[in-house]
Amino acid sequence: MLMQVVSAQEVSALIERLRPKLVARKVSLTIKGTGHTPFAGAANIQDGITIATQGLKGIQLAENKEYVTIGAGDKWRSVYTELEKYKWWSRWQGGGMSFYSTRHGFACDSVLDFEVVLASGDIVHANAKENTDLFTFPSSTIWGGVAYYMPHSFGQLIDATTHIMLSSGYGFGYHVSTCCMYHLKEDTDAPALQRFRLLPSLIKRDSTLQTGKQMDFCYELSKFTQDGSNVSLMKELHQVWLQILGPLRQLKGFIFSFGYFPFIKALLENSKKAGDNAKAIDPADGPLAVDELLRRIKKIAAGKGLLQRYIFTNYGYHKDDVLAGHGEKRVRRMKDVSRKYDPDDILQKSVLGGFNISKS
Question: Could you confirm whether the keyword Nucleotide-binding appears in this record (predicted)?
Fold first, then answer.
């Protein structure tokens, strides 16, 4: 059964009505956002009830223009479009990462308030003053886009990587390397970018480097620092990926990519300043090359003493213990909060899908 809700009050009423059966484990529930997580059961359920939150919309900039209220069902394209009217930008994107992360850290560490429906059906607010245990700025023009390179360039791109999302991928029989790059000062001749722009293997015809607004780049990426990173490890993992998936590249419709998303120290330090970052990543551990792959890759990294506990939530596999990656201290705190606000374990045992703290 699919239940579509348009307000926190409707969610509350639904939970209160279902609560006796949820406590008795006679019905199962799952919550569907906008459909990012790909594996079965994350946002749907067999013989249970799915609460669809796409109707929870509402983008409102405060009169003093110091904060913006966003509904759980709003998509980022709509948010960016609305805020552009006021010369504002939002730095919320997948996993809390954005073009501005190196300047301001994880987006989740700058949230002022959450409106939350508890497992009891009660509606509460979580912020710095109440329910603390549960617990955007002027726009600018950006230069950047997606640059495509011949596949043999991947090693050179790793050597050059700073504030770059770097991938190597197969699609419809072709192999290509890509860099998603951006420069907040709109300086197309910035020295840091020349190492990418001047590579002879750059495929200029297909690259999309340009000057534009944040919304333009976010929409493009939705379709589509090396600051101590271990370059030799990154290259070795890329070779493993080539060995494992290379033979499959001719399969019809086969698309698969291997990407590095660097968490540089500037991001982690600024995130800590904004509120002791919620992911509990010590800036001294940065940068982290976060990837989605394979037991073999983890084994190689662990063998070199370079395997990090943190798993990028957006790309976490359903078998991964993503929440454990926040560290033992944060996991204990999350479990304490869960027992306090959900003593009947409704959210842990009756709500399926996603990553449950009880499994960490």
Answer: no
> Tens digits of per-residue pLDDT, 62-86?
988 888 899 989 887 788 888 888 8
Residue 61, token pair as written in the block: 């900039």
Q: Are 348 and 126 in contact (CB under 8 A)?
A: no
Q: Are residues 177 and 242 in the same domain?
A: yes
Split into its structural domains, the chain has a count of: 2
The amino acid occupying position 127 is: N
Closest listed residue to residue 341, CA positions, set 128, 127, 117, 130:
117
Residue type at 249 in one-letter notation: R
Please check whether residues 155 and 131 belong to one and the same domain: no
CATH number of the domain enclosing 87: 3.30.465.10
Q: Choose among 86, 108, 100, 81: nearest CA to 144.
A: 100
Which domain covers residue 326, as residue numbers? Answer: 2-138+322-359
C-alpha–C-alpha distance, residues 164 and 99, integer Å = 10
318 CB-contact burial (10 Å; exposed 0-12 / middle 13-18 / buried 19+): middle
pLDDT in tens, 288-331: 433 444 577 778 778 877 777 777 777 677 778 888 887 888 88
> Which pLDDT band, with edges at 50, 70 and 90, does 226 fall under?
very low
Q: Are residues 160 and 299 located together in one domain of the fold?
A: yes
Please give the structure tokens belonging to residue 244. Answer: 């494992």
Element containing residue 123 per DSSP (H, E): strand 123-127
